[in-house]
Design brief:
With about 425 residues, this protein is mostly helical. The chain is built from 17 helices and 2 strands. This is MFS transporter.
Length: about 425
């Protein structure tokens, strides 16, 4: 009897001689660079922009900042589903550039906001746009490179991409928060000029010709083993957004709580964290290739992340700002497995659902901030700032480690197949 969950093979396109420095990889990397710039910019200009809009009380800056982050992440949850389904139905290229267009226009509009409500709705729209680029880019790279080179291609995308946060810090500090949004939007619109140099995935084109059902999001929920595998993929990325969405975004609050000697700014915390992420993404991607194991590399980085979360929460009391930012850098290094996580998600599923998974997985992980932030606030009352963060960190890391440890190894896996309903 045939297994209804078994993949149905399709003929792969010829990719043996594709270069890791091909146009597909370069455009995906530059797209992710602009994506990260725009995604993280709010965390950098949060205090500055809210002060300019009349929010000056520290407690209000924190609460309104979390509200705006939640709106952005809510948009990414919606956009993850929208772009993921479109990526499997219409193609990876249309999503790659469509998402860039939407978030670029939304970020330009962000530079004109005059009220918190305007800010919130535009962060929602920007979030929808930001949801599409990474999943589409990683899917396109994974399907365009030979299996022996996939990890190097996604490593390049991640290493170039996360450095966009450092540009966001530099621009935000020197040109002001409104101009920072204008510049980010302009960079995205400029990137659209590269559209002519990128071709659609051969695997997608073959799946399209096969008339297979593509991009049906609910198919992820109609098969038990497939659903469990999908949920595990989502959970792997949650620790990174615990670190970025809670520990780094609220770095000024943690700095005051820990008695750090000097003023801690969110912008510098983000800068040093993402500087670490550059090296972390390079290291995790490279190790997954050297060890020929995605899972082993992820496990090592999750353990490393746990140690650094402990160092951040319990080893910085009375420290200097220099030491604080140094820990932010190493903390960023420890969560530098983002593109590797998305690569694993893409490699776990067939061509007709691959973009849906690769796009929804990172955005649902990012969207976990919507649960993490209010839970953090709820626990802060009885446990305090440090205790609340410690509980969330332990839970998210343990669940992620379990998820990695129970997923099938995907290094070197052939991707030329379809998921059967």
């Amino acid at each position: 009897m045939s297994n209804p969950a078994a993949p149905a093979p399709i003929l792969p396109p010829e990719t043996k001689h594709a270069s890791v420095f091909s146009a597909v990889v370069i455009v995906a990397a530059l797209g992710y660079f602009v994506d990260i710039y725009d995604l993280i910019l709010f965390s950098i200009v949060r205090v500055q922009s809210l002060n300019a809009l009349g929010v000056t009380d520290q407690a209000a800056v924190t609460s309104q900042g979390l509200y705006l982050i939640n709106m952005q992440m809510g948009g990414m949850l919606l956009g993850g589903i929208l772009w993921g389904v479109l990526g499997d139905k219409r193609g990876r290229i249309s999503v790659l550039f469509g998402s860039i267009l939407l978030y670029s226009l939304a970020n330009i509009a962000n530079g004109f906001v005059q009220t918190i409500d305007q800010y919130a709705w535009l962060r929602l729209i920007a979030g929808i746009g930001l949801a599409g680029e990474l999943g589409a880019g990683i899917t396109l790279v994974a399907e365009s490179l030979p299996k022996e080179k996939r990890g190097y291609g996604t490593m390049i995308v991640a290493t170039v991409g996360v450095s966009g946060a450092m540009l966001a810090y530099w621009v935000g500090e020197r040109f002001g928060w409104r101009n920072a949004y204008f510049i980010g939007g302009g960079l995205g619109l400029a990137l659209l000029l590269l559209r002519v140099s990128v071709y659609e995935s051969g695997m997608f084109e073959q799946a399209k010709r096969s008339e297979a059902v593509r991009g049906r999001f609910l198919d992820l929920f109609t098969n038990g083993p497939r659903l469990v595998k999908y949920i595990k993929c989502l959970l792997i990325g949650v620790p990174l957004w615990f670190v970025v969405g809670i520990l780094i975004t609220l770095a000024p609050e943690f700095g005051r709580e820990l008695g750090v000697q000097g003023e801690v700014t969110a912008g510098l915390a983000v800068f040093w964290c993402y500087f670490g992420l550059v090296f972390g993404d390079f290291a995790s991607g490279g190790l997954s290739q050297i060890w020929r194991s995605r899972n082993r590399a992820l496990q090592v980085f999750l353990v490393f992340c746990g140690l650094m979360v402990a160092a951040y929460l319990f080893g910085l009391r009375g420290a200097s700002t220099t030491t604080f930012y140094a820990v932010c850098f190493v903390l960023g290094l420890s969560v530098g497995f983002w593109a590797l996580f998305v690569t694993v998600a893409a490699e776990q599923f067939g061509t007709n659902l691959r973009a849906t998974v690769a796009t929804t997985a990172p955005n649902f992980a990012r969207g976990s901030v919507i649960i993490l932030a209010p839970t953090f606030q709820l626990l802060t009352g009885p446990l305090g700032l440090i205790g609340s963060a410690a509980v969330l960190g332990v839970v998210s890391l343990l669940i992620a480690f379990w998820s990695v440890s129970t997923l099938p190894e995907s290094y070197g896996k052939d991707l030329d197949y379809l998921e059967v309903s």
